[in-house]
Write a structure and sequence with these properties.
Layout (H helix, E strand, L loop, with lengths): L3 H13 L2 H17 L2 H19 L6 E10 L2 E11 L2 E15 L6 E6 L2 E6 L1 H16 L6 E13 L7 E2 L3 H6 L8 H17 L1
Parallel strand pairs: 3-6, 6-7
Antiparallel strand pairs: 1-2, 2-3, 3-4, 4-5
């Protein structure tokens, strides 16, 4: 007659030898779920945009700062990318969206439509204007030196007429269109120093 207790112990002992297999499966499952999350996809998308800019802009003319946080009287604001050059300061808000995008520069909310499912989101031009205001005050520069850019990545399609500074492609080409020198080397050195300080502090 089979001793069920001994059988159970034998099976349990065998499983213990393969605990690492189960551990790896659990970790892999959790990692896959994490990487597929919307937040992580957004971060990866924004990082890809940054690397693309870095590769296509002349490093002698342009300096790129990623993920700048500025604290002012209205609180903390996070800026995706800041490109500084003698031609001005380009403040870039990156949106990792899919589907059709409907909006207007004067409307408070825009709409994302994915196969009929509609989701509203805050006007990214207005959002980035808040970033520019905070950055302008922090750097002590007038707003005329700043350019507001919204860059959609992913598989987004802009379905309404929007200004040229809202785009899904041609980011570096748009930046390079500005060729009038408005900032001196001395000003750029001060700006770089302040932005490096902002990254260290935050």
């Amino acid at each position: 007659m089979i001793n069920t207790t001994n059988v159970a112990i034998a099976i349990f002992s065998s499983l213990l030898h393969f605990w690492w297999v189960f551990a790896i499966m659990i970790i892999f499952g959790l990692l896959k779920r994490y990487l597929n999350s919307a937040k992580v996809k957004g971060v990866l998308g924004e990082t890809g945009a940054y690397l693309g800019m870095l590769a296509n802009l002349d490093s002698k003319k342009y300096k790129i700062f990623n993920n700048i946080k500025i604290v002012d009287q209205r609180g903390k604001t996070q800026i995706d990318h800041v490109v500084i050059s003698k031609y001005g300061i380009f403040v870039i808000e990156v949106k990792n969206y899919q589907g059709w995008i409907f909006g207007n520069e004067k409307e408070k909310y825009w709409t994302q439509n994915i196969y009929g499912k509609k989701t509203r989101f805050y006007n990214p031009l207005w959002q980035n204007f808040r970033h520019i205001k905070a950055l302008s005050e922090y750097l002590g520069l007038e707003s005329k030196y700043f350019y507001n850019i919204v860059f959609f990545i992913g598989e987004a399609t802009l379905k309404t007429k929007l200004p040229p500074n809202v785009m899904t492609y041609g980011l570096t080409g748009y930046i390079k269109k500005f060729d009038k020198e408005v900032l001196s080397e001395q000003q750029l050195d001060i700006i770089k120093e302040k932005l490096h300080l902002a990254k260290k502090v935050n």
